[in-house]
Specification:
The protein is an all-alpha fold. It contains 7 helices and no strands. Helix content is 79%, strand content 0%.
């Protein structure tokens, strides 16, 4: 395999991994900076396994769903950390091969494009996106609750709309930083002789 093809494969792999890492990083960042009430924070801590002693009076069906959310979050964290390790290896390789600026630039273009399209879809069709998300991650169907349920009262639809916008806007900003960083890194790392 020629060096150019190898470089293209590395850039494509890093771009794909960025589509995993950056939204998950943005998700974690959003949950740390987003203002939540006590019930929301207690539930978030529970699904993130920071607190296994949930003091709220959720029904058994709501608790079952929260257990499923906890499993999905654990799996997503595993994917997140493995992706970070793989990405670091690709960044080290890219740095040694002097293609780091292109690696960041093209992954930034990919992030802004893909995340921008997803954000637009969410803004235009949030209910459909919300349902699709739950059908993918909770196919057993235990995610629909009556409006008066404690879980829905604790996490109304507007909560999910707000954090989704935060997550995707942060991801797009990071993608833009990757794009803009191309020239700076190139000049700083490999000065002209």
């Amino acid at each position: 395999m020629t060096e150019t093809i190898t470089h293209k494969i590395i850039i494509i792999l890093f771009s794909i991994l960025s589509l995993i890492i950056i939204p998950l990083f943005s998700y974690h960042l959003t949950l740390n900076i987003y203002a939540t009430n006590d019930n929301q924070q207690q539930t978030i801590d529970y699904v993130q396994s920071k607190n296994n002693n949930l003091q709220l009076n959720y029904t058994s069906t709501e608790l079952s769903h929260l257990q499923d959310v906890k499993k999905v979050m654990t799996y997503m964290d595993l994917v997140y950390y493995i992706s970070i390790i793989l990405s670091l290896a690709l960044v080290i390789y890219a740095f040694k091969q002097k293609i780091l600026p292109n690696l960041l630039y093209y992954s930034g273009i990919t992030l802004v494009s893909v995340i921008g399209i997803i954000l637009l879809f969410i803004l235009l069709f949030f209910n459909n996106a919300f349902i699709l998300f739950h059908q993918i991650f909770f196919p057993q169907g235990n995610w629909e609750f009556p409006v008066e349920s404690l879980l829905i009262q604790t996490f109304p639809l507007q909560f999910f709309i707000n954090i989704s916008i935060f997550i995707f806007v942060i991801s797009i900003i990071i993608g833009i930083v990757f794009i803009v960083a191309r020239k700076s890194i190139k000049a700083w790392t490999w000065p002209k002789k």
